[in-house]
Amino acid sequence: MPVALRYGLLVAAVLVAALMSLTIGQRTDVGLHNVLQLLFVDDGSLARSAVVDLRLPRTLVAALVGVNLGLAGLALQAVTRNSLASESVLGINQGAALGVAIAAVMPSLMIVSFDVMAIIGAMLAGLVTFSIAGGLSGRLDSMRLILAGVTVGAFSFAFVRFAFTLEDNISRLVLSWTAADISSSTYGQALPLIWWALGGVAVSAFMAHSFNLLALGDGASQGLGVDPRRLRLMGAGLAAILTGASVAAAGPVMFVGLVMPHLCRLWFGNNHRLLVPAVALGGAGLVLLADVISKLVRFPYETPLGIICALIGAPYFLYATLRARNMS
Amino acid sequence: MTLKSWLAALGGALILSTVPALGVEITHDLGTTDVPDNPQRIVVLEYSFVDTLAAIGVVPVGIADDNDRPSIVPAYTEIIGDDWTSVGLRREPSLEIIASLNPDLIIADTSRHEAVYGALSEIAPTIVFDSLTGTYEVALDAAKTIAHALGKDAEIDARLAEHTTKMEGYKAEIGDMSGWSAQFIVDNGQGIFLHSPVSYNGSLLAWFGFKSNMPTPDGHTYPEAIVNTSLEQLSEINPQIIIRGKYTDPGLTDSWKGQPLWENVAAVQKGNVYDVIAHNWSRLRGVLASEGSAADPVEIVKQLKQERAAGVRVAPRGRLMAPLTRRCAPPSPAEGRRGPDCGALYVMAFSWRMKPSVAGSGSAGCGDAVRAMLTEGPLIRPSGTFSHKGRRRDCGAFCAMVDSARHCREPLGWSRRCR
């Protein structure tokens, strides 16, 4: 299949998933037959308001979170040269969650905003994971990387869970947030994500060639003019920023960053120049699909997005682990 | 007699002497428990059990009060006093503190404490009732059973008789509301939670005769009783009356102001969104609690009827108007802004309940002010003016605006120029 056709199919899948996400909801006066008309023509009806004011920001958040997390996972898998690496396995997701939980529990510690707290948390968690794994000295040990990620993730999430034991209101707030409930997303959350996602795509595309070289090994890539240590730092930093921004908007959505690069590699091969747009599209499609499922599982009530993503992602993680013959 | 029969007799005597002579067997949600006769040291792990003890005048030694003593409201502390120990969160009470209180009876909640029931039972006999997800009727039944366990059957019967009279009185005052759908919602700033027909508040509103537009769920789990939902779902349920308990101010619902979906909810459109005290409505359940919250629907219906009888806005009549009308006439809607002397007080104290869209958002403090006016007679209304943030303000209006009824009744600390 030519590459262009594959991209075309992927774009079509994302559009269909987005349309489904916009169509499905509690109001009965929105259906496939009129959703596009409602989206583009302002007829002042309540159905139009439901689509544009409530569902569109939510669909945007789902798609953009998918883009960000997919790219973060791709960058992490590239710089660690480990196909099991992803922001949730390396504890970055949980670190971002910790940042937001701290901001929610102790508002006085909130330095700037939820976004920034989440990014700081994600960066710190990533830094700790990488330094435990020996990444700062230039030699990454894959086994240690995964174990360090698990440790950092468990440690961060222990603190998030601590918030559950606090007073009812704080715990419900943190709980609904850690379950990644995006049902009341607003444009205020969706618009910043657009910039993060655009930046993520641009930087990833810029780094794609270096990722390809790094795949040849540290020595070879250095010989070809790429400093593996600097690239690792930049890749991990990019992943932390993208994860942090997503977590601040939607909560810790797990496993997207793990699943999507994997699937895309099966379909597009190992060339990161092709993978970057594919993973961005695929991530958007996957989270949109999860969003659709989250609305249908307990219709007319909603199931948080994070739970659906974990239900999709965890079995895949198991599958990938079993298939990975060699951890390094 | 053989040695064997002697031993058997001795053993029997021993057993008889260790088993308490009296005691009562209580069947509850998680089994059957022998409650010792006349328990003295009782620990309760939900607010509704505090309610029951208050109803029969029994003082608990320990209460799971979420580490927040004021959460045990004056209606309870007037009866049970302040001499109890906090045993921590209702969700996760401290077993250590409970054990240190050396209780002889623990009353726990089915869904919250099922996991620790074994541990609690080791500390003391534990009886368990569905408070969190139970209905109004379940709460009354639990009260009866608890009173029976404490040997206070006569007291609870008398109290329930009084309760029934009171509630029937309220119901009669409310009248036939079968054409009106009412919905209680909690707004915690992040999301809204609808109390469904199988929840305590849903069943209480149904008992008063209000309709519910929410589908009745099959089960009684927490997410079925207290449904976390979105504006879109609310717009589909489309209740004619919204009774709103806000834990934060401004709440999430306030951020929806101006959105067509919110403005077109029947209750919002007609100005029938009424704020109540979130804690009292959403957390307190039982005999005293229902009598307390019954005042709200009674008041709401009174205003609905007045509104319908006299058009859009109605000047409050009767004894409440006396201390206010003497100095100035209530303003017309157009003059509401220009007559700060008692117009602001009037708008704040009366109209926010009738017409929130005209009066602006009513804060919980003003709810207190109105409730106090309605139940305890006129407030002390400070006279004079003072300067605040560069603007000259009327003491009375400002007091009603920023302070709760309590402060209005007490000498005011915030400006010496107000008397």
Would you kindly provide a written description of the structure presented here, covering whatever features stand out?
The complex is a heterodimer of chains A (328) and B (419). Chain A has 13 helices and no strands. With 328 residues, chain A is mainly alpha-helical. In chain B, the strands form 4 sheets. A 5-stranded parallel sheet of chain B has the order 5-4-3-6-7. A 5-stranded mixed sheet of chain B has the order 10-9-8-11-12. Chain B has a two-stranded antiparallel ribbon with strand order 1-2. With 419 residues, chain B is of the alpha/beta class. Chain B has 3 domains: 21-151, Nitrogenase molybdenum iron protein domain (Rossmann fold, 3-Layer(aba) Sandwich), CATH 3.40.50; 173-310, Rossmann fold, CATH 3.40.50.1980; 312-419, no CATH class. Chain B contains 22 helices and 14 strands. The relative contact order of chain B is 0.08. The chains are: A mainly alpha (328), B alpha/beta (419). The interface between A and B is medium-sized, with 26 and 28 residues.
Shape of chain A: globular
Q: Given this structure, which CATH class of the largest domain in chain B is correct?
A: Alpha Beta
The backbone outline of chain B, from C-alpha atoms, is elongated
CATH topology of the largest domain in chain B: the name is Rossmann fold
Main β-sheet of chain B: number of strands, strand sense, barrel status? 5 strands, parallel
For the record, the CATH class of chain A is Mainly Alpha
Oligomer: heterodimer
CATH architectural group of chain A: Orthogonal Bundle
In CATH terms, the superfamily of chain A is ABC transporter involved in vitamin B12 uptake, BtuC
Round the Cα radius of gyration of chain A to an integer and report it. 20 Å
β-strand number of chain B: 14
Low-confidence stretches of chain A: none
Contiguous low-pLDDT stretches of chain B (5 residues minimum) are: 16-21, 311-379, 403-416
Overall pLDDT confidence of chain B: 76
- The H/E string of chain A reads HHHHHHHHHHHHH
Distance between the termini of chain A: 31 Å
